Amino acid sequence: MKTKLLISLSFLFLNTAIFAQVDQKFAYVNSDSVMRSMSEYKIQMKTLESYAKQLQTQYQTKQQSMQQKIQDYQANAADWVPDVLQEKQKEINELDSELKSFPQTYQFSVQRKQQELMSPLMEKVEIAISKVAKEESVNFVFPDQSLLFSQEKLDLTAKVIAKVNTVE
Fold first, then answer.
1. Has residue 34 been placed in a domain?
2. What predicted TM-score, i.e. pTM, was given to this entire model?
3. What is the pLDDT of residue 60?
4. CATH code, 152
5. What percent of the chain has pLDDT over 90?
6. Strands 26-29, 140-143: pairing kind
7. How many folded domains does the chain comprise?
Protein backbone atom coordinates (compact mmCIF):
# COMPACT_ATOMS: atom_id res chain seq x y z
CA MET A 1 0.00 0.00 0.00
CA LYS A 2 2.78 2.39 0.94
CA THR A 3 4.61 1.47 -2.24
CA LYS A 4 1.57 2.26 -4.41
CA LEU A 5 1.11 5.60 -2.63
CA LEU A 6 4.79 6.44 -3.04
CA ILE A 7 4.70 5.53 -6.73
CA SER A 8 1.52 7.58 -7.25
CA LEU A 9 3.01 10.62 -5.51
CA SER A 10 6.25 10.30 -7.48
CA PHE A 11 4.29 10.10 -10.73
CA LEU A 12 2.25 13.17 -9.74
CA PHE A 13 5.38 15.22 -8.89
CA LEU A 14 7.10 14.11 -12.09
CA ASN A 15 4.12 15.15 -14.22
CA THR A 16 3.91 18.50 -12.44
CA ALA A 17 7.58 19.18 -13.10
CA ILE A 18 7.25 18.24 -16.77
CA PHE A 19 4.18 20.42 -17.29
CA ALA A 20 5.82 23.32 -15.47
CA GLN A 21 8.71 23.18 -17.93
CA VAL A 22 6.39 23.10 -20.94
CA ASP A 23 4.82 26.44 -19.95
CA GLN A 24 8.17 28.28 -20.08
CA LYS A 25 8.76 30.35 -23.22
CA PHE A 26 12.17 31.80 -24.10
CA ALA A 27 13.32 34.45 -26.58
CA TYR A 28 16.28 36.69 -27.26
CA VAL A 29 16.94 40.26 -28.36
CA ASN A 30 19.89 42.11 -29.85
CA SER A 31 19.65 45.26 -27.74
CA ASP A 32 22.51 46.93 -29.65
CA SER A 33 20.49 46.72 -32.85
CA VAL A 34 17.46 48.09 -31.05
CA MET A 35 19.45 51.05 -29.69
CA ARG A 36 21.01 51.79 -33.08
CA SER A 37 17.56 51.89 -34.66
CA MET A 38 16.47 54.75 -32.42
CA SER A 39 16.70 58.30 -33.77
CA GLU A 40 17.77 59.46 -30.30
CA TYR A 41 20.79 57.15 -30.51
CA LYS A 42 22.21 59.03 -33.46
CA ILE A 43 21.74 62.34 -31.66
CA GLN A 44 23.39 61.04 -28.50
CA MET A 45 26.33 59.64 -30.47
CA LYS A 46 26.88 63.04 -32.12
CA THR A 47 26.79 64.63 -28.67
CA LEU A 48 29.35 62.10 -27.46
CA GLU A 49 31.62 62.74 -30.46
CA SER A 50 31.38 66.48 -29.83
CA TYR A 51 32.31 65.95 -26.19
CA ALA A 52 35.32 63.83 -27.16
CA LYS A 53 36.46 66.53 -29.61
CA GLN A 54 36.19 69.15 -26.85
CA LEU A 55 38.46 67.06 -24.65
CA GLN A 56 40.93 66.64 -27.51
CA THR A 57 40.92 70.40 -28.09
CA GLN A 58 41.61 70.99 -24.40
CA TYR A 59 44.53 68.56 -24.62
CA GLN A 60 45.98 70.32 -27.66
CA THR A 61 45.60 73.69 -25.95
CA LYS A 62 47.49 72.40 -22.91
CA GLN A 63 50.22 70.99 -25.16
CA GLN A 64 50.63 74.36 -26.86
CA SER A 65 50.64 76.14 -23.52
CA MET A 66 53.34 73.83 -22.23
CA GLN A 67 55.49 74.35 -25.32
CA GLN A 68 55.13 78.12 -24.94
CA LYS A 69 56.07 77.93 -21.25
CA ILE A 70 59.13 75.81 -22.06
CA GLN A 71 60.22 78.24 -24.78
CA ASP A 72 59.63 81.18 -22.44
CA TYR A 73 61.59 79.40 -19.72
CA GLN A 74 64.51 78.63 -22.02
CA ALA A 75 64.60 82.18 -23.40
CA ASN A 76 64.33 84.01 -20.07
CA ALA A 77 65.80 81.65 -17.45
CA ALA A 78 69.03 83.61 -17.23
CA ASP A 79 67.15 86.83 -16.38
CA TRP A 80 64.81 85.43 -13.72
CA VAL A 81 65.42 85.29 -10.00
CA PRO A 82 65.39 81.82 -8.36
CA ASP A 83 61.82 82.21 -7.05
CA VAL A 84 60.49 82.93 -10.55
CA LEU A 85 62.51 80.03 -11.98
CA GLN A 86 61.07 77.71 -9.38
CA GLU A 87 57.50 78.91 -10.06
CA LYS A 88 57.93 78.44 -13.83
CA GLN A 89 59.37 74.94 -13.34
CA LYS A 90 56.41 74.10 -11.11
CA GLU A 91 53.94 75.29 -13.79
CA ILE A 92 55.71 73.24 -16.46
CA ASN A 93 55.79 70.14 -14.23
CA GLU A 94 52.07 70.47 -13.42
CA LEU A 95 51.17 70.79 -17.11
CA ASP A 96 53.41 67.83 -17.94
CA SER A 97 51.68 65.75 -15.28
CA GLU A 98 48.24 66.70 -16.63
CA LEU A 99 49.28 65.80 -20.17
CA LYS A 100 50.66 62.43 -19.09
CA SER A 101 47.46 61.52 -17.26
CA PHE A 102 45.25 62.73 -20.10
CA PRO A 103 44.75 59.38 -21.91
CA GLN A 104 43.39 57.73 -18.78
CA THR A 105 41.31 60.76 -17.78
CA TYR A 106 40.03 61.10 -21.35
CA GLN A 107 38.92 57.47 -21.53
CA PHE A 108 37.18 57.65 -18.15
CA SER A 109 35.41 60.91 -19.02
CA VAL A 110 34.19 59.64 -22.38
CA GLN A 111 32.92 56.39 -20.86
CA ARG A 112 31.10 58.29 -18.11
CA LYS A 113 29.54 60.64 -20.67
CA GLN A 114 28.51 57.70 -22.86
CA GLN A 115 26.83 56.00 -19.92
CA GLU A 116 25.07 59.25 -19.01
CA LEU A 117 23.79 59.72 -22.58
CA MET A 118 22.84 56.09 -23.25
CA SER A 119 21.20 55.29 -19.92
CA PRO A 120 17.81 56.86 -20.81
CA LEU A 121 17.86 55.04 -24.16
CA MET A 122 18.61 51.72 -22.49
CA GLU A 123 15.68 52.26 -20.16
CA LYS A 124 13.40 52.75 -23.19
CA VAL A 125 14.78 49.57 -24.74
CA GLU A 126 14.15 47.62 -21.53
CA ILE A 127 10.58 48.91 -21.36
CA ALA A 128 9.99 47.91 -24.99
CA ILE A 129 11.47 44.45 -24.37
CA SER A 130 9.18 44.02 -21.37
CA LYS A 131 6.10 45.04 -23.36
CA VAL A 132 6.92 42.75 -26.29
CA ALA A 133 7.66 39.87 -23.92
CA LYS A 134 4.26 40.30 -22.28
CA GLU A 135 2.51 40.56 -25.67
CA GLU A 136 4.25 37.40 -26.86
CA SER A 137 3.77 35.57 -23.53
CA VAL A 138 7.52 35.09 -23.15
CA ASN A 139 8.84 34.22 -19.71
CA PHE A 140 12.54 34.86 -20.31
CA VAL A 141 14.34 37.19 -22.73
CA PHE A 142 18.09 36.79 -23.11
CA PRO A 143 20.64 39.02 -24.81
CA ASP A 144 21.69 37.42 -28.07
CA GLN A 145 25.40 37.85 -27.24
CA SER A 146 25.12 35.27 -24.46
CA LEU A 147 23.68 32.51 -26.66
CA LEU A 148 25.76 29.82 -28.29
CA PHE A 149 22.87 28.70 -30.46
CA SER A 150 19.39 30.00 -31.09
CA GLN A 151 16.56 29.58 -33.51
CA GLU A 152 15.67 32.64 -35.52
CA LYS A 153 11.99 32.27 -34.66
CA LEU A 154 12.88 33.11 -31.03
CA ASP A 155 14.39 36.47 -32.01
CA LEU A 156 12.24 39.37 -30.78
CA THR A 157 14.62 42.10 -32.03
CA ALA A 158 12.42 43.27 -34.93
CA LYS A 159 9.33 43.45 -32.71
CA VAL A 160 11.22 45.36 -30.03
CA ILE A 161 12.57 47.79 -32.65
CA ALA A 162 9.03 48.39 -33.87
CA LYS A 163 7.80 48.89 -30.30
CA VAL A 164 10.61 51.24 -29.21
CA ASN A 165 10.24 53.37 -32.33
CA THR A 166 6.50 53.75 -31.82
CA VAL A 167 7.05 54.69 -28.17
CA GLU A 168 9.51 57.47 -29.15
1. yes
2. 0.71
3. 94
4. 3.30.910.20
5. 55
6. parallel
7. 1
